């Protein structure tokens, strides 16, 4: 015959270590002991309070007294806290030695992750042998990997956008480049909204390069770019398309006189001396213009060709002027000199 089971003594500290979510009930059903992790679930200490005031046994059904609970020794229990916290627990109950009450060992079950987040629990809140500890390690590792992947994706997205921006930006002036201009023109046509187009070329720019050097020429180009940026709106496209040539798209503009006013301001500003190392550099601007409403339907190649033809007409008219090109190769409208 096997040896009879004998009782063992274990202090409250030992129970806290081995079962940090235990409850001890006295014979009347009042809570006489509570593990440290379980105490974190309650705003007020549960000691001395009736077990059934704090917990409901959901399964098995019909357990509403201490004796009924004791009769279910060894049975898996499903409990819910009555404090409205939504805490659900799993556990098992066993009688204490010599009829001194009951001992329940509880756990969070599948709701452990929610409990960890809600109550700020850590590995130290669980027994070292609890598989929850391993689960938390896995969750922490997964979270760390996920966060790193998110950071990597953000860096890749930022790098992609930076590369796209760089591919559409003129390195010298910071304006849009020819590729960006072509994209903006296609987009403007697709919107079916009117727009104006300017083609600006600097006069006497070669003389600046020949007299003062290419550093002076670069300085002049940057200064002209600043003028064009100031004289246009945030939604306009201002591009350096090569050398000393610039193009601008003005969404929503269908009035030739409105475009002429902008051109006159640009010509007047570009005509002002640009200082480079204390020496004045003088250039002028010739501008060719057209409107999308003059084209039916507007086509990129035709619009660009008309603006280019208007630019050459401006240069033939004496330079430092703006010319509006009519559709279909008609003669340009009268030259508009700067004031």
UniProtKB/TrEMBL annotation:
SUPFAM superfamilies from the UniProt entry: Nucleotide cyclase
Coiled coil, from the record: 142-169
InterPro entries assigned to the protein according to its UniProt record, in alphabetical order: DGC-Regulatory_Protein, GGDEF_dom, HNOB_dom_associated_sf, Nucleotide_cyclase, Rev_trsase/Diguanyl_cyclase
GO molecular function, one term: catalytic activity
Keywords assigned: Coiled coil
Record domain GGDEF: where: 193-327
NCBIfam families: GGDEF
Protein name per Swiss-Prot or TrEMBL: Diguanylate cyclase (GGDEF)-like protein
